[in-house]
Amino acid sequence: MSPKILTVSIALAFSGAASLLFPQETAQAAPAINNVAKIKPADLTLEQVFRAKTYAGQAARHIQFSKDGRYLAYTWNPFGENGFDLYVHDTQTGETKRITSPALMKTYDAPEDWERFDKKAKQKEKEEAERQAKAEAHAAYLRGEKVNLMQWEEAALEEVKRELAEKKARDAAKKAEVDAEAAREKAAAAAAKTGTASVAKNDSDKKDEKKDAKDDKAKEIWELRDELKKKLEKEKLKPSDLYPGVDALVWANKKNELIFQYRGDLFRLNAVDGKIERLTQTDKTERIVAYQADDNGYIYMDEKRLFNASFSSSAIRQLNRELIHPDDADKKYRIANTVLSEDKQWMAISAEAPDAKPESGKPTPPAERQVEIMNYSERFATAKKVSREVSDDKRKILATALYIRRVGDASARQPQPVFTNDGGDVWFEMSPVSWAKDGSRYTFSTWEREKDLLRIYVGKAEEGAKPQMVLERRGNVGHEVVNVLAPRFTPDSKQLIAVLDEQGYRQPYVIDVSNGSARQILKGDFEAHSIIGFSEDSKSMFVLANKDDFAAMNAYKVDLTTGDMKAIGQAGDFHRNSAVTESGDKLASMAGQWSSRPELKLVDITKTKSVTLTQSHDPQWNAIDLQRPERFSYTNRHGDKIQAYVFKPAGLSSSDHRPAIVYTYGGPLNDRHIVETDSFQQTAYMFGMYMAAKHGYVTVAVDPRGHSNYGRKFGDANWEQVGKPQTEDLEDLAKYMQKNLGVDGKRIGLTGWSFGGFQTQYTMYTSPDTFAAGIAGAGPTEWENYNSWYSGRTIGKTERSKPNLRKYSLLPLTAGLKKPLMLVHGMQDPNVLYQDTVNVYRALLENGKETLVDLFLDPDGEHGMGGAVKAKAWHKKYEAYFLQHLGKAK
C-alpha cells in the first residue's frame, strides 16, 4: 500500500512565540513507477549506468518512536529534493505528516541564506545536467557522430565575458562617481584660491585614461580560461551551500511532542496538532540532548556545555560547570563529554587533561605526524598537510578522568573522579557511559591493545564512589568486538548486556556482575552485534543478525531467558538504522534487497504486517535494471564456505568458455563485506551487471576469508599473513568458476578497491597464473605507512621503535608479476596515500614490468576518486582494459 502524506500548507498562521499551526491537508504519495521500459542490453551504455545524477535516493535518518509508540518520526526527502525534512507517521491512522519543508523553514531564515540555497540548488542541477550531456556527447563523438564538444566551454566563456563586462561597468561607474567627487573637491579648492571653478587635468588623470584604454582591449582566450578556472574554484559546491533540513530530534518522555534541530537552532513540535514553536535563535549551534524528566523543559548542549531550559521561563542554567583545579594540580582536566541519566538526576562527565609543557603551561603539539599531499591544480604544485599516525609513531593519548556528579546545586563541592587513566604512549579506548533506566547505576568498558585487556565496569550513582570491574578478558578477545561491545542495562535495570566474541561470533551476553561470568544468550554461528532495544518488561531483546543468511541482516525478537529468536523482517532483507517501540510491538527500519531497493519499513511485530513509508529512488532505475545476481557459495581448500554472487549473461552454459571478472575487497573492517543483499556497489554490482548484460561476461563478487561479519575465524584470518588466505580463496574460486560457471580459466580478470586494491596486487604477484589481468584501485602497498588504528588491529603486531609492518610490503613481491596490471589512484587521497601507488609502480619498473603495468590517475581525486575522474570515466577505462586483455565473449 502507498502511505498517506499530509502536505503542510505554506500559508502559515502565526501565534504565540513564533508558533505555526498546520492545516491537515491529505494527499496520496505518488505510486512507484514500475512500468519504465527496459533498455535493450545491446543499447546499454556506461553513461546510462553511471549517470551524473545517481538513481539512488537518500535513506531515512533519525528514526525514532514516541514513548507511547503511536508516532514514528524520521528525516527524509523524496528523490531529487535537497536536505532531510522531518516526517511524523501516525501508526493508528496510517497518516504521515511532512512537518518541515524548504518553503516552511525559509520563514525562519534570513533572505540572504535562501538566496544562496536557491542559487546553489540551481547550480547543482545545472552541473549534473551538463556533466551528463558532456558524457553523452563524448560517447557520440567517439562513435563518429558530429558533435560540438566545445559548446559548454564556449557558453561558460561567454558567461565569463558578460560577468567581466558587468563588473567593469560597475567599477567604471564607481570610479566615475569617485572621480566626480574628487573633481568637485578640486574645483571647490581652486575656486576658493583663484576665484575660478576651472581645473585642468593633471598627469594622474591622463594615466588613468591610458589605463582604461588598455583595459578596453579584449582578453585573449587563454586569459578567459584562467578567469573561468578562478570562477569555478570560487563557486565550487560545498555541503553548507544547500538546504540541510533537520539535523536531529528527541521525543518527550510522556507527551507526544518532540524537539528538533534546524541549522543550529531548536524547535518544538506537537505531534498531535502540528504546532511548531521556535525555542532558540542564536549565532551558536545548539544540540538537543533530552527533555526534562517532567517534560516541562529541555536540556541542550553547545560545544561541551550542558544547559537546562524551561518552557515557562526564560531562565537557563548550566548543568556541567567546568572542572576546577588548584594551581599545583598535576593534571588539569577539561570536560570532553557529558551523559545524563534518564531521570536527569545524575551526570557522567568524561574529561581529558591537555598535555602541557611544564615551562610554559601551553599544550604540546599532537604526537601524530603531518604528511604532505601534492596539489597540481595551480600553475605550480603546492602541498597540503594532513594528519597521520602510523604504527611506529609514539602515541600521546591524553589522560582521562570520569566524574559522577549529581544534577543540582552548582555551588556544591566538586567530587573526585571515580576512574582515571594516565594516557601517554599507549592504546587505550573507553566506551561512552550508559546509565540504567532508573538512574541507580552506570556502566562502561575499556580496551588496552598492548595488554590485550578488555574490561567492563559498573558503578553506583554516587559522587566519588569507584566503579567495580565486573568482567575482565585477557588475550585475543576478537579485534572487531571493541567497537560494538557497548555494555548496557535492560529496562528493569537488573541485567547487564554486552556484545562479546567468546565463541567466535559477536553476540550479546548477560554479564553476571557478582562473579564476572558471561552467559551466551543466542545459539548458533552467526553475527548479532547490533542491539536495537528491549521490551518494557525486559523479557525480550531486539537485534539485527545474519542468522539465516550471511548476506542479509534481519531483525529478530529474542527471548532473554531461552535465547529463542523470531525473525521480524522479510527474508533476504538487510536492515540498517533500526528502532523499536518501548512496548516492543513495532519496528521501523531501513530495509531492502536487490529486488526491492531499501526503504523505510514499519513492521507490526504482533501482527507480522509491514508497510513501506518512503519511496526514495528514481523510477528510471528500472530501465537499466536488466539483471539480478545469483547467490552461490563454494568450499575452499580448508573446508570453509565462501559466499559470492554472480551475474550470468543470457544463454550461459556450463560448457561455455566465457571471459570473467572477479571483484574482491577482502579486508576486515567492522561489519563491512561485499556480498550484501541491499548493496548496489559501483564496481561489484553496477559494473558487473553491465559487463554481463552488454558484453556477455560472467562477473562475480566474492567475500574471501579476511572479511568481517563472518565470525572471528574469517576476521582474524588476515592477521600476520595479510593477503595470503584471501589469495587461496581466490585461487579456489577460479577453479570453481571454470567447472561450474562456463568460464575460460585463461580469461579471468581480478579487481578491487582500497584493501581490495592491495588484495588484487598481492594475488597478481604471488599467484601470477591465476588471473589474466588485474585492476588495483587505491591499494595500501606499504602497511607501515597506513593508519595505525587499522593496521595495528588487523594486519599484525606493531612496535613503536621500528616500522616492523614493512615485512608485509608489496614492493618485494612485484617481481612475481606475469600478467597485465593497471594501478588506479586519486592523487589527493588522504586515506591510502598516492605515494603507495608511486612506490609500487617504481618497484614494478625496476623489476622489468614496464610492458605489463599501466597507471590511471585522478589528479584531483581522493580515496573514492571523484575529482576529474567520476564513476563513469573509470569504469569506461575498466571496460576497455578488460576487453583488451580478456577479449570478447564467444
From TrEMBL:
Alphabetical list of PANTHER family matching this protein: DIPEPTIDYL PEPTIDASE 9, PROTEASE FAMILY S9B,C DIPEPTIDYL-PEPTIDASE IV-RELATED
One Pfam family from the record: Peptidase_S9
Domain Peptidase S9 prolyl oligopeptidase catalytic: 686-888
Record's protein name: Dipeptidyl aminopeptidase/acylaminoacyl peptidase
Entry keywords, A to Z: Aminopeptidase, Hydrolase, Protease, Signal
Domain Dipeptidylpeptidase IV N-terminal: 431-573
A GO BP annotation: proteolysis
